[in-house]
Amino acid sequence: MTALPLPIDHMARYRQHLQACGFEAKPASAWDARAAQSSWKRRHDDYSSAFLARLDLHNVDTVLDVGCGPGLLSVPVAAQVKQVHALDYSHGMLEGLRAAIAREQATNIKPWQLSWEDDWAQVPVCDVAIASRSLMVPDLKQALVKLDAHASLRAYITFTTAPRTGVLELAALLGREWIPMPDHRYVMELLWDMGREPRLDYLPTSALDHTQTAADLVRQAEHLFGELSEQDQQKITEWHSLSSDHRLGLAPTKRWAFIAWETRS
């Protein structure tokens, strides 16, 4: 009789993938700087609408929003429920949230400056928990377990899928090796390992940034591939001029996977 194969350690494979692609968790200061960008909200309106359209808040009183940023989801969700607990480790993002609370008079939102690694003992368990684009962390399993434990009914998250438009072509142009970040398959496998039955959907494909200049593209390429020679920069400038389809999108993924699951066993 043939023996069953050994169980796959999905968390070990996820860690190996993070190491292979050179992942480094961003410090809170990086998000503080991004929070100051005036175009932040405008750039993400379509994404927020697509996420909110998939939320089931029927008979839901409380929502936990982890990685809440400046409140792009917390504020509209607060209009539909009694209480929102909004967590972020960036002081700048929470300042943006507090400004939105004052502007919209959303007094039922409580900000918490906490990270995925911090102790959430004081954070109440809510009916629903959401984590929008905030789960690319060193210990994905721990984060999913914490989110699951803080939602009495359901959890909703988004996670990366394929790389953004043009990245693979740009890597070939520069002769650079580029390994994409871990995708949503790791989340699905880990949730199945936890005994959950995740449901998978996809948000619309991220739009290209047709206002992006060649200099913007060079800066993005430096972020992806490191230091560029003058010859590399010239290649990118020429490539940018060929077609708007060769411009990278704003998002770190071509489209986002939307994953939902019931948290009650």
Can you walk through the features of this model?
- This protein is 39% helix and 16% strand.
- Strand 2, helix 6 (91-104) and strand 3 (109-113) form a beta-alpha-beta unit.
- The mean pLDDT is 90.
- It is globular, with a radius of gyration of 20 Å.
- The chain has 265 residues and is of the alpha/beta class.
- The longest helix has 14 residues, at 91-104.
- It has eleven helices and seven strands.
**Class by alpha and beta content:** alpha/beta
Residue share in helices?
25-40%
The major sheet is characterized as: 7 strands, mixed
Gyration radius, rounded: 20 Å
Secondary-structure element pattern, one letter each: HHHHEHEHEEHEHHEHHE
Which word captures the global form? globular
Helical region count? 11
Average pLDDT number: 90
> How do the strands line up in the largest sheet?
3-2-1-4-5-7-6
- Beta-strand share of residues: 15-25%
Low-confidence stretches: none
Write a concise synopsis of the structure shown.
This protein is α/β, with parallel strands linked by helices.
Topology at a glance:
Elements lengths: L9 H11 L7 H8 L4 H4 L1 H9 L8 E5 L7 H5 L4 E6 L2 H14 L4 E5 L12 E6 L8 H10 L1 E10 L6 H8 L9 H10 L5 E4 L11 H12 L4 H13 L13 E7 L3
Helix pairs in contact: 2-6, 10-11
Which features would summarize this protein structure in a list?
265 residues; alpha/beta; single chain
